[in-house]
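Late entry, evening session. Most of the bench is empty. Finally got around to the prediction I had been postponing all week. Sequence below, unchanged from the version circulated by S.P.
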Amino acid sequence: MSIHDWPQEKRPRERLIREGAQALSDAELLAIFLRIGVAGKDAVQLGQDMMRHFGSLQRLFSATLPEFAAVHGLGPAKFAQLQAVMELARRAIREEMHNGSMLSSPRAVKEYLRTTFAAKSFESFHVLFLDVKNRLIDAKEMFRGTLTHTSVYPREVVKEALARNAASVMLAHNHPSGTPEPSESDLLLTRALMQALALVDIRILDHFVVAGHQIHSFAEHGQL
């Protein structure tokens, strides 16, 4: 039975319009994104297959094209659509951060970081540059690979901050296969960056460690 043969009150698209997107399961939301299923499976069943295969939305969003296409019924077209949806979400959140104080929008900052790091299977270090009103000027990935105190160069962060006339910065990096708890290297790196930026009167407002949906804030834990 296809979704079109379901009772109208149970169809995902109609339920979303009636009850809101939050009322739907992950598989039902994916069914709306997919629109159609494959031979022998409707779009909801295909969405369920996707969730079983990847185990979580985080792993689905970070999948490469070969990993994505390993699920029967998925291919380059759907992969491109998913990447486009994720980039639109990032841009919408970034727009919100440009228009208001980052300190008054902690939800937007964390959502931006979750979507930014969702597709990264490697360690990546980002800097968010802020103006005197704590609004976002720019966000940039500055280093990638195994991040240590010696592989992240404070002088490069200082140079980029000065080039944007930033008054303060927020730092963020991910732990792709770990927990959001900062390591000793993370703490040492943060202190080194604080000292370097203080010389040019630029403050670090926070340093976030992202691990999947979990985010550790140095500021919230009194580590700055």
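Two things to note before I forget:
The chain has a mean pLDDT of 84.
The longest helix spans residues 76-99.
Will write this up properly tomorrow.
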